[in-house]
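Changelog note: in this version the structure field was regenerated for every chain. One regenerated record is shown below for reference.
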Amino acid sequence: MDSVSRIVSCLRQAALEQGLEDLDDRCFGDVIGLGLPQAIEQLYPGLEQSRVERFRQTYSARFLAVDGEPSALFPGARALLGELRARGHRVAVATGKSRRGLDRVLAELDLAASFDATRCADETASKPDPLMLEQIIGELDVERAAVVMIGDTEYDLEMAARAGIRSVGVSHGVHSRERLLRHGPEAIVDSLPEILAWEPLPEQLRPHRYAG
């Protein structure tokens, strides 16, 4: 989903309402992909827990207030999901969103049936800890060698690297191509449909099972 501008705006509103220093868009964008408490800690190190909780509540309220219309999907996203399913791939979500937030978005976009498993930052460890991927692999009972993490933040790709899982970076999301390359992705694509042409595994391991 193309939600960067909405997230940055809501983070800034929450910070200013808490009397915190205004940061530039890059700083707020850098934490996208982390769980919200981890994002707040990275933005404002050493903030006492009570203020972190007030920030979290304010951010959530602001995000809901502008959430009458779902964020747009990136071009090709819905078609990609449909084609992956049609080819027999299994698809999962590992996200920094809360469970409540993810379920709301999937319902609004009618995408819940497109995924075989989901994990959220408020029910497990936040990225880049690999626990989300470990849990998805266990739930779906798939071979680690047949799993690929697809992500647009360095936290996605670092999580995959720490889990010993292949990854593909998407260049048009949050973090730059240079930052994605730090974590050794098998490829970086400039558009989602390019993923369909990517063949990273030996013949005997196809079809692939994607967790992204």
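Spot check on this record: The chain has a mean pLDDT of 88. The longest helix spans residues 49-65.
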